[in-house]
Amino acid sequence: MKILVVLTSHDKLGNTGEKTGFWLEELAAPYYTMKDAGAEIVLASPQGGQPPLDPKSNQPDFQTDATRRFENDAEAKNQLANTVKLADVHAADYDAVFYPGGHGPLWDLTEDQKSIALIESFVLANKPVAAVCHAP
Q: For the residues 122-128, what does the mean pLDDT come to?
Protein backbone atom coordinates (compact mmCIF):
# COMPACT_ATOMS: atom_id res chain seq x y z
CA MET A 1 0.00 0.00 0.00
CA LYS A 2 1.27 3.44 -0.94
CA ILE A 3 -0.10 6.40 1.03
CA LEU A 4 0.23 10.07 0.19
CA VAL A 5 0.52 12.44 3.16
CA VAL A 6 -0.17 16.09 2.28
CA LEU A 7 1.36 18.73 4.53
CA THR A 8 0.97 22.50 4.54
CA SER A 9 3.56 24.96 3.23
CA HIS A 10 2.02 27.88 5.16
CA ASP A 11 3.94 29.24 8.16
CA LYS A 12 2.09 32.35 9.41
CA LEU A 13 -0.84 32.34 11.86
CA GLY A 14 -3.00 34.96 10.16
CA ASN A 15 -1.76 38.46 10.98
CA THR A 16 -0.75 37.60 14.57
CA GLY A 17 2.97 37.50 13.83
CA GLU A 18 3.09 33.96 15.23
CA LYS A 19 4.53 30.99 13.35
CA THR A 20 2.43 27.99 12.43
CA GLY A 21 2.56 25.01 10.09
CA PHE A 22 1.70 21.35 10.56
CA TRP A 23 1.23 19.78 14.00
CA LEU A 24 3.99 17.23 14.69
CA GLU A 25 1.90 14.65 16.62
CA GLU A 26 -0.74 14.71 13.89
CA LEU A 27 1.93 13.65 11.41
CA ALA A 28 4.06 11.39 13.61
CA ALA A 29 1.37 9.14 15.13
CA PRO A 30 -0.37 8.28 11.82
CA TYR A 31 3.01 8.08 10.04
CA TYR A 32 4.19 5.27 12.31
CA THR A 33 0.82 3.55 12.38
CA MET A 34 0.93 3.35 8.59
CA LYS A 35 4.66 2.62 8.33
CA ASP A 36 4.58 -0.10 11.00
CA ALA A 37 1.70 -1.72 9.07
CA GLY A 38 3.96 -1.94 6.01
CA ALA A 39 2.72 1.03 4.01
CA GLU A 40 5.00 3.06 1.79
CA ILE A 41 4.56 6.72 2.70
CA VAL A 42 5.20 9.71 0.45
CA LEU A 43 5.14 13.20 1.95
CA ALA A 44 4.04 16.11 -0.24
CA SER A 45 3.37 19.81 0.22
CA PRO A 46 2.29 22.67 -2.06
CA GLN A 47 5.81 24.13 -2.34
CA GLY A 48 7.76 20.91 -1.88
CA GLY A 49 10.81 20.72 0.35
CA GLN A 50 10.67 21.29 4.11
CA PRO A 51 7.16 22.14 5.33
CA PRO A 52 6.89 24.48 8.32
CA LEU A 53 6.40 22.88 11.71
CA ASP A 54 4.16 24.68 14.18
CA PRO A 55 6.74 25.41 16.90
CA LYS A 56 4.14 24.92 19.63
CA SER A 57 3.66 21.31 18.55
CA ASN A 58 7.29 20.52 19.43
CA GLN A 59 7.14 21.92 22.97
CA PRO A 60 7.74 19.42 25.78
CA ASP A 61 4.07 19.33 26.86
CA PHE A 62 3.03 18.16 23.38
CA GLN A 63 5.71 15.52 22.81
CA THR A 64 4.68 11.88 22.69
CA ASP A 65 6.39 8.57 21.99
CA ALA A 66 5.57 9.09 18.30
CA THR A 67 7.01 12.63 18.14
CA ARG A 68 10.17 11.54 19.94
CA ARG A 69 10.49 8.58 17.57
CA PHE A 70 10.07 10.91 14.59
CA GLU A 71 12.65 13.37 15.92
CA ASN A 72 15.17 10.51 16.22
CA ASP A 73 14.35 8.93 12.84
CA ALA A 74 16.86 10.15 10.27
CA GLU A 75 14.91 8.60 7.38
CA ALA A 76 11.64 10.28 8.41
CA LYS A 77 13.32 13.64 8.95
CA ASN A 78 15.03 13.40 5.55
CA GLN A 79 11.71 12.57 3.92
CA LEU A 80 10.13 15.57 5.68
CA ALA A 81 12.92 17.88 4.53
CA ASN A 82 12.34 16.79 0.94
CA THR A 83 8.58 16.62 0.44
CA VAL A 84 7.38 16.17 -3.11
CA LYS A 85 5.82 19.22 -4.72
CA LEU A 86 2.04 18.75 -4.75
CA ALA A 87 1.84 19.75 -8.43
CA ASP A 88 3.95 16.67 -9.27
CA VAL A 89 1.63 14.20 -7.50
CA HIS A 90 -0.83 11.93 -9.33
CA ALA A 91 -3.68 10.35 -7.37
CA ALA A 92 -3.50 7.20 -9.49
CA ASP A 93 -0.09 6.43 -7.95
CA TYR A 94 -1.52 6.10 -4.42
CA ASP A 95 -3.94 3.91 -2.52
CA ALA A 96 -4.97 6.54 0.06
CA VAL A 97 -4.36 10.16 1.06
CA PHE A 98 -3.98 11.63 4.53
CA TYR A 99 -3.91 15.27 5.66
CA PRO A 100 -2.31 16.04 9.06
CA GLY A 101 -3.59 19.08 10.91
CA GLY A 102 -2.04 22.20 12.31
CA HIS A 103 -3.20 25.71 11.51
CA GLY A 104 -1.21 25.99 8.26
CA PRO A 105 -3.69 24.01 6.14
CA LEU A 106 -6.35 26.63 6.89
CA TRP A 107 -4.50 29.07 4.64
CA ASP A 108 -2.97 27.14 1.78
CA LEU A 109 -4.60 23.72 1.39
CA THR A 110 -8.18 24.98 1.57
CA GLU A 111 -7.63 26.99 -1.60
CA ASP A 112 -4.98 24.86 -3.33
CA GLN A 113 -6.53 23.64 -6.60
CA LYS A 114 -4.17 20.66 -6.85
CA SER A 115 -5.09 19.56 -3.32
CA ILE A 116 -8.80 19.93 -4.05
CA ALA A 117 -8.45 17.96 -7.29
CA LEU A 118 -6.51 15.23 -5.47
CA ILE A 119 -9.22 14.82 -2.86
CA GLU A 120 -11.88 14.71 -5.56
CA SER A 121 -9.87 12.08 -7.48
CA PHE A 122 -9.52 9.88 -4.43
CA VAL A 123 -13.22 10.15 -3.61
CA LEU A 124 -14.25 9.36 -7.19
CA ALA A 125 -11.92 6.35 -7.22
CA ASN A 126 -13.36 5.10 -3.89
CA LYS A 127 -9.94 5.43 -2.25
CA PRO A 128 -9.62 6.43 1.41
CA VAL A 129 -9.30 10.11 2.24
CA ALA A 130 -8.43 10.95 5.85
CA ALA A 131 -7.72 14.19 7.68
CA VAL A 132 -7.29 15.19 11.28
CA CYS A 133 -7.96 18.32 13.34
CA HIS A 134 -7.61 21.54 11.31
CA ALA A 135 -6.86 19.69 8.06
CA PRO A 136 -10.54 18.91 7.35
A: 98
